[in-house]
Amino acid sequence: MAIIEKLQWRAAIKSFDPAKKLSAKQLDDLLSAVQLSPSSAGLQPYKILVVENPEIREKLREAAHGQAQLTQSSQVIIFAAETNIDEAYAKKYIDLIAKTREIGREHLYAFEQSILNILNNQTEEQKISSATKQAYIALGVLLTAAAELGIDACPMEGFQAGKFDEILGLKELGLTTAVIAPVGFRSDEDILSKMTKVRRPKEELFVHV
Ligand SMILES: Cc1cc2nc3c(=O)[nH]c(=O)nc-3n(C[C@H](O)[C@H](O)[C@H](O)COP(=O)(O)O)c2cc1C
Question: Which candidate, 8, 10, 36, places its Cα nearest to that of 155?
Answer without folding.
Answer: 10
